[in-house]
Amino acid sequence: MSINVTKSYLPPLEEYIGYLTGIWERAYLTNAGPLVVELEKSLKEYLGVKHLFFVNNGTIALQIALKALAVQGEILTTPFSYVATTSSIVWEGSKPVFVDIDPRTLCIDPTLLEAAITPQTVAIMATHVYGNPCDVEAIEAVAKRHNLRVIYDAAHAFGVTYKDASILTHGDVSTLSFHATKLFHTVEGGAIITDDDELAHRISYMRNFGHNGPEAFWGVGVNGKSSEFHAAMGLCVLPKVDDLIRRRREISERYDAALVGTGVQRPLLQEHTTRYNYSYYPTVMPSEAVLLAVRDALNAADVVPRRYFYPSLNTLDYTGKQVAPVSEDISTRALCLPLYYELTNEEVDLITAVIKSVL
Ligand SMILES: *Cc1c(COP(=O)(O)O)cnc(C)c1O
Fold it and tell me: Residues with Cβ < 8 Å from 140, sequence gap 6 or more?
């Protein structure tokens, strides 16, 4: 069996079947059913956020966030993220304007934001990449000065706190992904989070076709709803999240100890202000040639790391030619090593031994 970059956590089957039994009894499968309502309540409590809308994936979460904020124009964004950060901007009819990343944190570099602002700029969409918080204070200061909206793609940042509060409380809106590969998952799923009551009101209609009762509509909407089956998975996984994070931390520290002095770099974490979630184990290799040699050696040992995030999003053919030299460089050297609950210490030792044999 190969060791992949991640492996979805699955709860004991009986726990899931327990929820299925209830679903069968009620024969109520979707449309804000009792399990969806319960999951939303539990997530709000666990994350410490005011409004949270469970939706069917993290990409529709970004799209609804953009629609609800009614932003259209140029959106300053990071080139170092998953493609959905950029594609959702384009899909919603706006233009992504790439602002390069800080080579230490790999998040958007706030000192470069102002130079990218034009009269068409309407918003900033930044990613807490690998769960590492952006410089939210600097971003929000720029946004305030120029009257821009702020959306955080927090797909990696489940459970992350910054200065003792959920990182999700920053910006006008934050979004999460609950895809099967994420730390907390509902197989497919995501969420939209905001503190703003009026915005929350709009989002609640938008994710359900704009329905205002069975026969009336309040504005245009889309189908962003999720089902009882997905909520049931979330309700099984949520009580385990702290234990998942605890084990991922142990594994990350084991990697750190083994890779010290090898030339493998790690993104800088603001450790004194951040409670991290260990959602990924990103490394930055000394060069692309080394990265490819490490990857090939790991593949030969049946280990499959992933080039998160490659290519740099400013090089996509539909975004026009834009430059972001730091992101382009980092994306050729970034490699995420396997990190998941069931990964054993012996497997970690095997992986680090293979890496050291190449370096
Ligand atoms: C996973 C991910 C998404 C998309 O989430 P889905 O639930 O797969 O639609 C968006 N942004 C980032 C940064 C992601 O990693």
Answer: 150, 170, 171
- pLDDT tens for each residue of 175-216: 999 999 999 999 999 999 999 999 999 999 999 999 999 999
Given a cut of 90, whether residue 89 has pLDDT beyond it is yes
Contacts of 177 (CB under 8 A, 6+ apart): 57, 58, 59, 61, 155, 189, 190
Q: Where are the beta strands (DSSP E) in 280-321?
A: 281-284, 303-304
Write out pLDDT tens, residues 214-248: 999 999 999 999 999 999 999 999 999 999 999 99
Between the CA of 83 and the centroid of ligand 1 the distance, in Å, is 8
179-212 CB burial, b ≥16 within 10 A, e <16: bbebbbbbbbbbbbbbbeeebbebbbbbbbeeee
Supply the pLDDT for residue 270.
Answer: 81
Q: How far is residue 336 from each of residues 46, 114, 179, 210, 281, measured CA to CA in Å?
A: 27, 31, 17, 40, 5
Q: From CA 348, how far away is CA 332, in angstroms rounded?
A: 24
How far is Cα 42 from Cα 40, in angstroms, rounded to an integer? 6
For the annotated catalytic residues, the residue numbers are 182
**208, β-bridge pairs:** 223
Instruction: Quote the pLDDT of residue 130.
Output: 97
Q: In what order do the strands lie in the sheet with 161-162?
A: 165-166, 161-162, 274-275
Domains and CATH numbers, the chain: 13-239 (3.40.640.10), 241-358 (3.90.1150.10)
Phi, psi (rounded to 5 degrees) for 211: -55, 130
Give the residue among 132, 80, 99, 81 at the shortest CA–CA distance from 328: 80
- For ligand 1, whether the C-beta of 85 sits within 6 Å is yes
Please indicate whether residue 81, judged by its CB atom, sits closer than 6 Å to ligand 1. yes
CA 347 – ligand 1 centroid, Å:
27
